[in-house]
């Protein structure tokens, strides 16, 4: 038989004709693509915002060009890690840059933290303000200039004497002027600003350049002059990130968040979309077999299926992308409210939509071709013969691979028994997804085995509907296993996310509660002088300052230098008086100078012992080799690494403490804090913080989990509706054999019961085991943590979705007259 003429046009007619007769299954594909496009677009917008958005310049908006040291650590094959604190550069660069043609002025900028009349604010050197304000006299030694907003907030005016507290102490200054300047804060002369900022002599935070004429040309000249120095020349919108480092940190967090979400979302989208397409192709096997019989080549059949799926996907793609942009706006608004985005503008460009479209269309193409692969390659006669029945075997190789993947998931679930720290949580959570993938592969064989065992145990007393339901489940094991895998994914994902989050939170809270010895906590911008005064206060036994900071642990792997970011707490001497970290080796009294203490599990993982040195990069980019003074057991509560405050202040210069932990009479601590404007005290230990409600991170996890589970439920419902709708021929056969509509509905209810029991059982099996082990290892309780109502709630929702998705199309089909039903089935 001569094959059909090659080309796309030849298959257009059959494709459209087949689509008209399989609307239900194709709608399922469109809905799966719709949900997938919305989720992928929203995630892409978050990532694009992190990659391209910038904070608008504020105080230095008049400077067309900013010169700064690199404010990030380069990482091989990964996004660079931004520094939370600023690297400095030589202040005398300003004079060199001022001599470049087109530059009308250049000034070194210095910034320091201060506390004035109980208000925390920033101070700056006057030189940068003088570039744009020549009418206000420059402050002299012992003088400050206030901007109008700060003056209004504090009530000070020109000529007033103020007590300004900085990290180096409290000093009195005279307000020489109040000026209407961009930004907020106060200004001092350059020498005073340098002393208060704590930088080394001759250093500055950045250089502001005022250009005349073509900014791009002047910036190119500045770059040429700085070639080889490593300093960066910033223009346009990127100036905001150079002025305010919070923008760079927020961008990095958004990229990290989008990357973390992308892997799970892409996996789910592929899983759900691929399942919907498989159901659609399964409903067209007879049509595809007939095409093979009339001469269509395997390649033409696969192309037809892929083209049809792509056209249907396009119908769900466009509205899905639009909804994705709306979701992204709401999502980033939530992130902004929690302080994650630092006010970055949302990047609502076509790029994210194009990424979603390309990814979804690629997924649809691959899934359609894979689903049609077997039918397209069968001989024409075999394809026609097999089009009425499902292949008996599910493939030995597929089953073996699936069982191996399930075994891998069990191994991951057991990791908390041998792997310490947060790695145990990551491994246990990943075990659920791994197990579901294995279930999808080995599902048909497992479904047949379970239903065969169930039927044998039920004996001869099994009623006709139940017997038919079990027989159908065995005969169409692939169809049943596909639905089981998707529903099990929804159950397992929900239980895993809720339980893992609850276990982590309770573990950290228990360690903080057991390790906190402070009777009161003072918060605010606390100077070294404040801390010394608190230690001397009557009724106070000891006071220890705490700094919240970040470090990078650097190490070599495969010849490359890697860096892992770690949040850290830095304590002034005396940590053992206010906290019990459950020391396992060493002595926390030695936590002074360039020393650190490590979580014991992390120390073992790193191969670091007491007395060893580890390479760190501080928050301002300073590289140090810190000695390990001690190892401790309460790493979840107090973090992976604890620093000596000397390590931070000794390299980055003086800075405020973020809090002070005190022992003694809480009332005495409160009385002392009441006499220092800007500081507050509360009973007990507030550092580390024990969450008493939902944190922004927990709300974020819940939002993402609900969205993912909603999408999985939608995909499952779509697939079940499509699979049930294409069983009209089966219903027609049963009706022709004498079965009443009531008996057919009874059979379908039994099938639904089997399906829900398998799905809920599998979902709980793949999630309860790893979550139970997590709870047992870290909390000593042999059951998953979290609200107990989550498990029955997700089980009930799964059963409701499955029942509705099967019962509604079944009733609709059975309302059709038998003759019409038989004709439609053909």
Automatic annotation (TrEMBL):
<feature type="transmembrane region" description="Helical">
    <location>
        <begin position="425"/>
        <end position="447"/>
    </location>
</feature>
<feature type="transmembrane region" description="Helical">
    <location>
        <begin position="260"/>
        <end position="283"/>
    </location>
</feature>
<keyword id="KW-0472">Membrane</keyword>
<dbReference type="InterPro" id="IPR038766">
    <property type="entry name" value="Membrane_comp_ABC_pdt"/>
</dbReference>
<keyword id="KW-0812">Transmembrane</keyword>
<feature type="transmembrane region" description="Helical">
    <location>
        <begin position="481"/>
        <end position="500"/>
    </location>
</feature>
<feature type="domain" description="ABC3 transporter permease C-terminal">
    <location>
        <begin position="712"/>
        <end position="817"/>
    </location>
</feature>
<dbReference type="Pfam" id="PF02687">
    <property type="entry name" value="FtsX"/>
</dbReference>
<feature type="domain" description="ABC3 transporter permease C-terminal">
    <location>
        <begin position="261"/>
        <end position="379"/>
    </location>
</feature>
<dbReference type="InterPro" id="IPR003838">
    <property type="entry name" value="ABC3_permease_C"/>
</dbReference>
<feature type="transmembrane region" description="Helical">
    <location>
        <begin position="789"/>
        <end position="808"/>
    </location>
</feature>
<feature type="transmembrane region" description="Helical">
    <location>
        <begin position="347"/>
        <end position="368"/>
    </location>
</feature>
<feature type="transmembrane region" description="Helical">
    <location>
        <begin position="752"/>
        <end position="777"/>
    </location>
</feature>
<feature type="transmembrane region" description="Helical">
    <location>
        <begin position="400"/>
        <end position="419"/>
    </location>
</feature>
<keyword id="KW-1133">Transmembrane helix</keyword>
<protein>
    <submittedName>
        <fullName>Membrane protein</fullName>
    </submittedName>
</protein>
<keyword id="KW-1003">Cell membrane</keyword>
<feature type="transmembrane region" description="Helical">
    <location>
        <begin position="304"/>
        <end position="327"/>
    </location>
</feature>
<feature type="transmembrane region" description="Helical">
    <location>
        <begin position="699"/>
        <end position="721"/>
    </location>
</feature>
<dbReference type="GO" id="GO:0005886">
    <property type="term" value="C:plasma membrane"/>
</dbReference>
């Amino acid at each position: 038989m001569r094959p059909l003429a090659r080309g796309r046009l030849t298959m257009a007619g059959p494709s459209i004709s087949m689509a008209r007769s399989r609307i239900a299954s194709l709608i399922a594909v469109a809905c799966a693509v719709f949900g997938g496009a919305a989720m992928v677009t929203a995630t892409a917008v978050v990532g694009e915002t992190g990659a391209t958005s910038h904070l608008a310049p504020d105080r230095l908006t008049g400077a067309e060009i900013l010169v700064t040291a690199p404010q990030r650590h380069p990482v091989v094959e990964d996004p660079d890690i931004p520094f939370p604190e600023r690297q400095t550069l030589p202040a005398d660069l300003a004079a060199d840059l001022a001599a470049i043609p087109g530059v009308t002025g250049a000034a070194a900028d210095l910034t320091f933290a201060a506390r004035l009349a109980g208000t925390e604010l920033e101070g700056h050197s006057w030189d940068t303000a003088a570039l744009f304000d020549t009418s206000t006299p420059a402050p002299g030694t012992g003088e400050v200039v206030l901007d109008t907003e700060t003056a209004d907030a504090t009530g000070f005016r020109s000529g007033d004497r103020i007590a300004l507290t900085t990290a180096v102490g409290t000093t009195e200054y005279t307000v020489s002027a109040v000026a209407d300047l961009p930004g907020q804060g106060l200004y001092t002369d350059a020498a005073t600003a340098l002393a208060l900022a704590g930088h080394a002599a001759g250093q500055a935070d950045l250089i502001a350049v005022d250009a005349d004429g073509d900014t791009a040309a002047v910036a190119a000249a500045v770059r040429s002059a700085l070639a080889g120095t490593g300093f960066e020349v910033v223009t346009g919108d990127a100036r905001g990130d150079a002025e305010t480092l919070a923008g760079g940190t927020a961008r990095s967090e958004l990229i990290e968040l989008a990357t973390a979400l992308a892997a799970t979302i892409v996996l789910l989208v592929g899983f759900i979309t691929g399942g919907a397409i498989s159901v659609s192709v399964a409903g067209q096997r007879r049509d595809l077999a007939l095409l093979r019989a009339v001469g269509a080549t395997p390649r033409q059949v696969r192309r037809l299926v892929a083209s049809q799926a792509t056209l249907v996907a396009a119908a769900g793609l466009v509205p899905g992308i639009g909804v994705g942009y709306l979701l992204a706006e709401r999502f980033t608004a939530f992130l902004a409210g929690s302080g994650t985005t630092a006010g970055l503008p949302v990047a609502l460009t076509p790029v994210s939509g194009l990424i979603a479209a390309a990814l979804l269309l690629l997924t649809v193409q691959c899934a359609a071709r894979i689903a049609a692969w077997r039918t397209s390659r069968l001989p024409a006669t075999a394809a026609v013969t097999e089009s009425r029945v499902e292949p008996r075997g599910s493939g030995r190789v597929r089953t073996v691979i699936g069982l191996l993947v399930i075994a891998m998931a069990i191994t991951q679930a057991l990791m908390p028994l041998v792997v310490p720290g947060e790695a145990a949580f990551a491994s246990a959570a990943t075990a659920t997804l791994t197990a579901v993938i294995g279930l999808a592969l080995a599902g048909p064989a497992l479904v047949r085995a379970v239903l065969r065992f169930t039927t044998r145990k039920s004996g001869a007393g099994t009623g006709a509907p139940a017997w038919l339901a079990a027989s159908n489940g065995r005969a169409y094991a692939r169809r049943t296993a596909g639905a089981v895998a998707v529903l099990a994914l929804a159950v397992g994902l929900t239980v895993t996310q809720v339980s893992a989050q609850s276990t982590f939170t309770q573990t950290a809270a228990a360690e903080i509660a057991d390790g906190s010895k402070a009777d009161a906590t003072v918060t605010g911008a606390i100077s070294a002088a404040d801390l010394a005064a608190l230690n001397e206060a009557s009724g106070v036994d000891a006071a220890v300052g705490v700094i919240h900071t970040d470090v990078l642990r650097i190490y070599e792997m495969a010849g490359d230098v890697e860096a892992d970011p770690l949040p850290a707490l830095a304590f002034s001497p005396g940590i053992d008086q206010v906290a019990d970290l459950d020391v396992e080796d060493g002595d926390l009294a030695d936590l002074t100078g360039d020393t650190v203490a490590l979580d014991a599990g992390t120390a073992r993982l790193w191969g670091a012992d007491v007395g060893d040195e580890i390479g760190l990069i501080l928050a301002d980019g300073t590289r140090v080799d810190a000695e390990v003074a001690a190892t401790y057991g309460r790493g979840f509560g107090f973090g992976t690494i604890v620093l000596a405050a000397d390590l931070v202040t000794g390299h980055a210069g003086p800075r405020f403490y973020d809090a002070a932990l005190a022992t003694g009479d809480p009332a005495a601590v409160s009385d002392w804090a009441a006499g220092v404007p800007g500081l507050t005290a509360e009973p007990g230990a507030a550092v580390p913080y024990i969450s008493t409600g939902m944190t922004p991170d927990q709300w974020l996890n819940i939002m993402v989990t609900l969205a993912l589970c909603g999408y999985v439920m939608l995909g499952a419902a779509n697939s079940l509706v499509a699979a049930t709708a294409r069983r009209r021929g089966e219903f027609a056969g049963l009706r022709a054999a004498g079965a009443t509509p009531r008996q057919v509905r009874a059979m379908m209810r039994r099938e639904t019961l089997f399906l829900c029991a398998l799905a809920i059982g599998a979902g709980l099996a793949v999630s309860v085991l790893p979550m139970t082990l997590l709870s047992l290892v870290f909390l000593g309780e042999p059951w998953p943590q979290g609200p107990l109502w989550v498990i029955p709630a997700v089980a009930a929702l799964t059963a409701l979705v499955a029942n509705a998705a099967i019962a509604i199309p079944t009733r609709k089909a059975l309302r059709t007259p038998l003759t019409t039903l038989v004709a439609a089935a053909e």
